[in-house]
Fold this protein.
Amino acid sequence: MSRTTDRLLVNGRLVPGSGGTFETLNPATEEILGEAADATAADMEEAIGAARQAFDSSGWATDLALRVRCLRQLRDALQRHSDELRELTIAEVGAPRFLTFGAQLDAPVADLGWFADLAESYEWSTDLGRAEPMGIPSHRRVVKEPVGVVGAITPWNFPHQINLAKLGPALAAGNTVVLKPAPDTPWCAAFLGTLIAEETDIPAGVVNVVTSSDHALGAQLAGDPRVDLVSFTGSTATGRAVMTTAAQSLTKVFLELGGKSAFIVLDDADLRAACSYAAFSVATHAGQGCAITTRLLVPRAAYDQAVEITAKSLRRIGVGDPKDDKTLCGPVISARQRERVESHLELAIKDGGSFACGGGRPADRDRGFWIEPTLITGLTNESRAAREEIFGPVLVILPHDGDDDAVRIANDSPYGLSGAVHGTDLERARAVAARLRTGTVSVNGGVWYAADVPFGGYKQSGIGREMGVAGFEEYLETKAISEGVA
Ligand code: NAD
């Protein structure tokens, strides 16, 4: 694996990091997988320069046929290496194998083709026809153009999904990109960089992949005036820092941030099915998904029964080796993340909560970063466990007093990323869904995740949308051209 994963991609060349290398770990075993290239500020400087040069001087921005061909080449190259990538992803991310057949790998790779198709069919120019503003005969057109150089900064939880959900539309639109992945998952990005260099015709400088152990390179990318758009996914705190940095040069920002999404069970729902589904959701990938529903809102009269069903489901799910087909809940990414989750669990107890199941590390695992699927009871929506993003397999269960109260509690959050509603009367469930102030909502288990569905947040969950036509258009500028006519 070392040849393909310990290089940066800068200006079309696979080069070592000027800072040497840093280790990447398997979170399930704490085994050192190997070395990743450790870029310095000088490497980032060169990568941004290369992306600027490629945008300003190559034909990439205007050659739609080349872009479409290259995107399909990249998809095909990733698919050719999918077995190797799958094992790498399971090892480096701790991602359960079953997820790699969906959002952790196969789905975002296939979605590159969707962006290629979209670019081919997109209406790049709209004729607004003739008009006489202020009496001057004019023929007007509106054209769409790439924004320019995109600085893409990504987290570790779904590395391929997030790297490709930025790269796909950014390249389809004609931009050039500097990708700075999270220090926890450098190999996933480095592998992508190697395939771009070795198995596609993407011109030099169009994509640069800069792995580093140093978060400061993200800030450097966000603050460089040669960057035209910062596309960031990560925590709300870092997103705020990115926006502040980018504000100095008034660089456009696109932010996908944290969440604390509510799963509402209405009083006519099948309680057992709904609570089991909520348990399944929060345990998936050890809860390390920004849109995972982490507050379970149940009718007050059914609270005790809901606690029993949900705790039983979470206990049955347990934790498992991510290599195993049947595992739902693998490890969390790092010792630091485990500490972060544990400190939230302590706060839950301090705030008067208790654990109906879980509450710490599983007794039978002495290596790896594990947290048992946990259900917290006895808290209100004002508690820190109900307000703050924990990013672990931790669910807070809260009682509600009917549909209006459930909507009030769900919306009483600084976040607005996603939500779920379960109820037998579909019109009633739809009415509740319509009142949620979130970017996506699932009704009765509907799955919104797909290439053509825009994803993003209200409030402190972000600015802008990823994927879908709306996600593509984040990477475009609008230019109006008016020609004087006789
Ligand atoms: P993070 O915010 O710590 O880091 C994200 C990226 O930002 C990393 O590449 C990091 O190196 C970089 N970074 C750190 N400091 C920076 C700075 N000052 N300026 C610029 N870049 C900087 O997030 P994480 O811990 O890697 O990921 C978990 C978080 O990501 C969670 O909060 C989760 O909700 C969020 N997330 C959101 C979405 C979404 O689409 N809304 C998707 C996945 C994850």
Remarks:
- The longest strand covers residues 138-146.
- The two ends are 66 Å apart (CA to CA).
